[in-house]
Design a protein that fits this description.
The complex is a heterodimer of chains A (112) and B (113). Chain A is mainly beta. Chain A has no helices and 11 strands. Chain A has strands at 4-7, 10-14, 19-25, 32-38, 45-51, 56-59, 62-67, 72-77, 86-92, 101-102, 106-111. In chain B, 0% of the residues lie in helices and 50% in strands. The chains are: A mainly beta (112), B mainly beta (113).
């Protein structure tokens, strides 16, 4: 069945450095790729999303890239700050949220 | 402020008892969803509803039931038939349009002993 693989499962970076989280998806029909950030004890929050008609999208320190041919997409966080520490989930879907498949999550820790 | 409210935040039950988790939204979204989150795993879809009085099974619906009598409310009942009910449960809503982003509540952590 459809699958989204996410790597790494844990990531620790020095404050100020960049962090990269990578995902691959199996369903070539997927056309929407959101990223969610989940802080401890809270629900996930959408931080950025990309649709299959673009290859890159940026919002301040956060950027997402998409390679449809390779079925890869990645989240890039630059100039990391302590408040970036959280679990990040990638996802892939087509048409509706009932078809969305989530990755297994990356626990990002920012070292002071 | 618009949002999704899940209650309670923590819930404890004895094995063999049914328990109902509450989810209310004031975002005027048509679609609502229930997910289950286990440590080290992604979110798995339990049930979803795209319109009042209609709902569909997700990937792991066995042992759960839902109702959608009002647009704002989508309660989830964890029945005694659910073999491993201890988990973190997340409710979400979205507009009905294609690829509308999910808005999540802050979850209910259910512990069954």
């Amino acid at each position: 069945g459809e699958n989204v693989e996410q790597h790494p499962s844990t990531l620790s970076v020095q404050e100020g450095d960049s962090a990269v989280i990578k995902c691959t998806y199996s369903d070539s029909a997927s056309n929407y790729f959101p990223w969610y950030k989940q802080e401890l004890g809270k629900g996930p929050q959408l931080i950025i999303d990309i649709r299959s008609n673009v290859g890159e999208k940026k919002d301040q320190r956060i950027a997402v890239t998409l390679n449809k041919t390779a079925k890869h997409f990645s989240l890039h966080i630059t100039e990391t700050q302590p408040e970036d520490s959280a679990v990040y989930f990638c996802a892939a879907s087509y048409s509706s949220a009932s078809k969305i498949i989530f990755g297994s999550g990356t626990r990002l820790s920012i070292r002071p | 402020d618009g949002g999704i409210t899940q209650s309670p935040k923590y819930l404890f039950r004895k094995e063999g008892q049914n328990v109902t988790l509450s989810c209310e939204q004031n975002l005027n979204h048509d679609a609502m969803y229930w997910y289950r989150q286990d440590p080290g795993q992604g979110l798995r879809l339990i049930y979803y509803s795209q319109i009042v009085n209609d709902f569909q099974k997700g990937d792991i619906a066995e042992g759960y039931s839902v109702s959608r009598e009002k647009k704002e409310s989508f309660p989830l009942t964890v029945t005694s038939a659910q073999k491993n009910p201890t988990a973190f449960y997340l409710c979400a809503s979205a507009d009905r349009g294609n690829n509308s982003p999910l808005h999540f509540g802050n979850g209910t952590r259910l512990t069954v002993t």
